[in-house]
Each structure stands twice: as C-alpha cells, then as structure tokens.
Amino acid sequence: MSSDVQTPPAEDPSESSRQEVRREVVEFVKMVVWFLVLFLVLKTYVIEGYEVQGPSMEPTLHDRERILVFKLPHLMSEFSLFSWIHPFHPGDIVVFDSPDDYNKRYVKRVIALGPQPSPNTVAAGAQNAPDDSVSFEIDDGKIYVNHSLVKEPYLPPNVDFGRDNEHTVIHAGQMFVMGDNRGVSKDSRTFGPIEDNKIIGRAVLRFWPLSRFGFL
After folding, report:
1. Residues sharing a CB contact under 8 Å with residue 118, sequence separation 6 or more, in sequence order
2. Cα(132)–Cα(83) distance, rounded to whole angstroms?
3. How many domains does the chain have?
4. In CATH, what number is assigned to the domain containing residue 202?
5. How many angstroms separate the first and last alpha carbons of the chain?
6. Quick one: average pLDDT of 161-165?
7. In the predicted model, what is the mean pLDDT of residues 197-206?
C-alpha cells in the first residue's frame, strides 16, 4: 500500500529577502529613535553646545568660538534632595537667559553669589543660617565682596571697567556676573544681579576652534 506525502512548497527566495530587509529597516528605525531620545535627554538635562557671539568675554572667549555647557548639577540643585549641591562658584563661566531680552542668552563670568545655605542649616532662623544678602562694590576698578577685595587672575592687566563705581546687594538665589572684556560687556552692571532660574549651566569646555580646544 502506498501513501502520498505532501511536500511543502519551496520558500520563495525573494520573499525571504524582503522579510530580511524589513527587519533591518525596523531595527535601523529603532536605533535612530533611541539615538534621538538620548540626544534630546542629554541636550535638555545634561550638556549642550553654544556659540559665543560678540567680544564681551575676550580674551577668554572669542566671537564664534563654541563651548559646551554642563546643566545637570544646576538642575539637580533645584530639588530639595540635592539642595546641598552648589553648582556655581565665583570665577565660573555661565550661560543664562537674558533678563531683558526674551530671545537672547548671555555668557558671562560669575563674580559674586548671594548667600549660600550651609549644609548644616536645618531650619530658618538657625544660628548658622546665611545672612540675607552679600555686599558687592566696584571702586576705582577694584571689586569688593562683603568689603573683601576680589582677585581676578583670569583678567589681563589694566582692564577697562567702563563705569568705575558700582554698589549693590546680592540676595540668596542671585549672582552678579560680568564679561571679562569689561569696557564693552553688558552684564549685571546694567541689568543687575541675575536670578537663579535664569541660569542654563556652567561652561566647561571650548571645543571649537580646535587650536583653542580646552577646559574652561
């Protein structure tokens, strides 16, 4: 007795090839989507590139140079869990939203900060709570913070301050910023101390031009 055996049809090589192409396309699209998500997360919360415009930070930064701005420590410090983080210090270079021009951002140097909370401060009114404000003064081309002379080794000699005299107070959550090219810089001497919520982050690296590549 004989029996018939049905032979499965041979797979079409062209169909197999199309399926393989579709799989590769799907994997490629997934990879691109993950890359874009990662890029957006890094740009929004971690680090971002900026182009310097104008001469206000010369000789430290020149027009058209490109810098990387580190955002994460500042963003973390806004949460109570990380309130002990002090992301900025005098001498740092920061990028911030202009307080008087919605569509503009500035790059300047931090000269003085408002009172910083002590890590040991547990309640308002504690003995180690910071003072309400910091005194800032420019007198005959010299800067004084709480009446102590500020040394600025990053400046070239004989810097032109433009206006010789300035006196203001800096409160908690504020900083006084200035350009290194003092004679042409629009900075806190014009628009006052800037608020913490205007800060984008700290400039950490100049990556263009390559001849001036280096940390800031």
Report:
1. 128, 129, 130
2. 18
3. 1
4. 2.10.109.10
5. 91
6. 67
7. 96
